[in-house]
Amino acid sequence: MRQTREHKKFSPAKRLEILLAGCLYYSGLVSLSRRRSQRSGQTLTILCYHSMSDGYLREHLLYLRRYYRLQHLESALEELYTSRKDDVRVKDRRPLLSLTFDDGYHDLYTYGLPLLTELQTPVTSFLVPGYIDNGKCFWWFEPEHLLLHTQEQEVSFQGQTYHLQHEEEKQALLKVIDTGLRYARSVAEREAFAEAAYTALKVPPVVELTEQEKARLPLNWDEVREMGQSSWFSFGAHTMHHPILAYLADEADLQYEVSECRAVLEKQLGHPVRTFAYPVGKNEHIEEKGVQAIERANYPWAVTTIHGLNTRRTDPRFLDRIVVDVDQHWLMVAAKASGLWDFLVQLGRSPIALLQNMFK
Fold it and tell me: Is the pTM of this model over 0.85?
């Protein structure tokens, strides 16, 4: 598989990962795992990405297009839950796979749309309408944004003084801000906390963004609609403002985030929205109340970030996804998509530890 970057770009830890993934791939174990999961019955692998650019997405897609049958998430789920193993409609027996991209970063339009059109690859992106409306950076980038743009060397916040010329104290403040935003019990509480942090660090609401920060901005509605008119993008809901559902104190707030997101997207896109992605997406971030909110909003399907492959026995409102990233080598994506990498993890052994033991 052709590469567009040199191996020296990878850290030592990532080189070890690539070495093990290469062993799994070239030994035939990845291919065996891929075929074995398909023989056991109809399966669906859902990969979870975030941004598209500044990585190896092209290499990922070239590999995945060759060995998997790629479909938009909605059509893949319809097939998973309605077709039989011997269904004559499914002539292509390669494993079924869907590519999903959470949050709706701007590079889905600038980089992704031309690439997906060229390679004719369908993806599903989960959008956060509140951020499309306000055009701000997502809340998880706020701590870094504040520390980057403050001119202060001494900051008093939440009853503690931080001397930002000392890296240890700077990192401590970064963690305090992230914790306050992440564990907010409502979107209003999160916004109030962010405003207090901006005031304490004396960062104006509007500053000149770095190129990296511009790449983290959300899509706008014109871009979303243009992408939706292509055959390569479909869209799902990801809440109105991306709170972590399990942390919300008020049930009405939770239901609003889940339901209003769908209503806004359907109005903007002009067609039904049937898929939902839980923010962050592990069990502790969802809890039973998150699943109940999805059921009340009548979403047919909802995806987590809990690793695994899906079968028709999988709860359609608690679907597994395998988290990958564009900065990973295609060999890693091959090992993860086959389920083999996570199988090694579930054995209780780090794949890297296994590799290190081989050379003892």
Answer: yes
